[in-house]
Amino acid sequence: MTSETLQTYRVWDRTTRLFHWINFLSILVLIAVGLVIYNAKAFGLSSGGKVFAKELHVYAGYVFAINLFWRLIWGFIGGAYARFGRILPFGKGYGADLKAYRSGEKTAWLGHNPMGRLAVTALLLLLTIQAVTGLVLAGTDIYFPPFGGMIAEWVAAEGVDPATLVPYAREMLDPAAYKDMREFRGPFIETHEIVFFVLAGMIVLHIAAVVWSDIRHGGGIISAMFTGRKAFSEKPADAPEDD
């Protein structure tokens, strides 16, 4: 294949590309700091060190959650290939497209290929679960928004101003209320930890699949997240009719 035979197509708009790289960087920070928190005892972190790590994790989590929220909105109003109709594995003809892709009949796709749409859906679901559980835990751990105020009012001891609560200050807490809060917190932390490791595995598979698809079918998937354009020697299956 030579460069003269390639036709380039605009695919990913600027907002989609920006989301991708903010998401990538924020997840890297979240994974790194999350592993430190998860292994706090092994690292010998003091209470102050653990609070600092959790605060850093939460701030990165805010960036991640806001970015994800905007991407979900962009799925309704964004460019043609950024919309949910092109990235979720539903809709008329999806089954036939999946069959054609797996058989090798249709391998060139401007947007996500049919298998990629399955992976993207799984990733978006996992990312959303992680964002929601993380925002709840930010309130239960260090009393950060959006739920920290409510949690502080729940667990503050009588006569203690909830706004003055600091993490790990047990003398400021009502023991019974704190115990109830920890039970409430349990399913959220368990889900957050499980999804953390599932996501880490999915990200590795995602990167491997992108590299494999780029080598096997071409298109410049990786470079397209910088330039917004893909290049093919044949007309992609999902290209507009007038291209």
Automatic annotation (TrEMBL):
Ranges of residues in domain Cytochrome b561 bacterial/Ni-hydrogenase: 11-228
InterPro entries documented for this protein: Cyt_b561_bac/Ni-Hgenase (IPR011577), Di-haem_cyt_TM (IPR016174), Hydrogenase_cytochrome (IPR051542), Ni-dep_Hydgase_cyt-B (IPR000516)
SUPFAM superfamilies the record matches: Transmembrane di-heme cytochromes
Subcellular compartments: Cell membrane
Membrane topology reported for the UniProt record: Multi-pass membrane protein
Main localization category: membrane
Protein's name in the database: Cytochrome b/b6 domain-containing protein
Lineage of the organism: Bacteria, Pseudomonadati, Pseudomonadota, Alphaproteobacteria, Kordiimonadales
